[in-house]
Amino acid sequence: MNDAVLTRVMTFLARLVATPSPYPPGDTRAVCGYLAELLSGWGYATQVVSREPKIANVVATLGRGAPQLTFNCHIDTVGVEDAAAWRSDPFAVEARDGRVYGLGVNNCKGPAAAQLWVAEAIARRGGPASGSVTFTFVGDEEALGPNGTAFLRAEKHMAPDMLVVGAQTENALITRERGVTWIEIAALGTAAHAGQPADGDNAIMRMTRLLCHLEQTLFPLIAARTADGLQSTISVGTVRGGTNINVVPSTCTAAVDRRLLPVRENIDGALQEIRAVLAGAGEPEGSFAVRRLTGTNGFSAPQDGALVLAFSAAIRSVTGMTASFVDSVGAFDGRFFADDGIQIVNFGPGEGSQGHKSNESVPADQLADSARIQLQMVANLLGLTRPA
Q1: Which of 87, 263, 279, 282 has its CA 20 to 30 A from that of 153?
Q2: What are the φ and ψ backbone dihedral angles of 316, each rounded to 5 degrees?
Q3: What is the DSSP letter of 244?
Q4: How far apart, in whole angstroms, are the C-alpha atoms of residue 295 and residue 358?
Q5: Strand arrangement, sheet containing 233-241
Q6: Which of 111, 105, 26 is nearest to 373 (CA)?
């Protein structure tokens, strides 16, 4: 390993992987302690903040004023589901055949290690020449919880003008993301003995009729909605009802996943659309209810925006290649800022297919290139006080 950048990134990555932070339970205190010590030692104004005691988050800033460029990466991981399937210690990095192995190296401690290298390099060069740069390392992402990035935004610990989210993009740029919302449908009925089902009102059968009505009326409309290659989708993810086989069920709930086109669709409209369609299903008034469980709108960063242009120039400078743009099937933490009118880019080493797998790995060359590209992007965007 003759690449000095890769060697340093690997040093950070080895320590991150060796400091467990799996969900459950999602305890990020130890790993955030390590991160905070590094960042404060490099001169960053650093704090560790939490809403839930075990879910720590690090916020570290260098420079002052606008524009504020913020880096964000989650440092919780999934757990080791099948230890016997691992060819190496999940909590130790191992390099072989051009790849680096270990729990979370792809999702998302590899991108975090690359961002750490960038943070150190910026500090060594005297900080940004204009504006400020903030690094945030968060928990609660694997739980899709409210105590990581969402908490930092809500409490104004993060207020970026531009946001770079560490993600598995193979060093391509994700500049747009569909919105996502989960909607619950609750069907109500009347319990009765299964020996005399006519005495009750079967909530599962009501749910069946409601979902069939959705499938026949709304599903085709949503399937026809596209925007520049993105697809609007709807999927029924869970149906739960009944207490025993010999009881007519009085309740049944279903959860619907909606993926929304950025700009053209939003979470409020998606909720109202499902309510309106189900109102025409022919079920009695008050026999069902519809509510949003969670949701964030989509975003689309302008291709001629300062952040995308700085990234594109950096990719060409470091690799000699034109920047490539990809879309994500899932959603990253930038979604919490979708309504804030800021520029958001998801970027980092690793492949989406590697996340949450036994023998999780990341290409070593992507780790080094990711670090170099992001430092050059900062130089393009904000300038650096001292030359390299």
Answers
A1: 263
A2: -65, -40
A3: -
A4: 30
A5: 233-241, 251-260, 179-188, 288-296
A6: 111
Structure tokens at 157: 């610990």
Examine the pLDDT at 161 and tell me if it is beyond 60. yes
Cis status, amide bond into 349, omega within 30 of 0? no
CA terminus-to-terminus distance, the chain: 22
Q: Give the bridge partners for 70, in sequence order.
A: 134, 163
Give the pLDDT of residue 1.
Answer: 53
The values of phi and psi at residue 227, to 5°, are -150, 105
Instruction: For the chain, give the longest Cα–Cα distance.
Output: 83
Per-position DSSP letters for 222-234, written without gaps between them: HHT-EETTEE-EE
- 32: tokens are 């955030």
Six-digit token pair at 28?
């990020």
- pLDDT tens for 245-271 read 999 999 999 999 999 999 899 999 999
Write the DSSP symbol of residue 200.
Answer: S
Nearest to 270 by CA among 227, 230, 235: 235
Q: How far apart are CA 140 and CA 74, in angstroms?
A: 8
pLDDT of 201-243, one tens digit each? 999 999 999 999 999 999 999 999 999 999 999 999 999 999 9
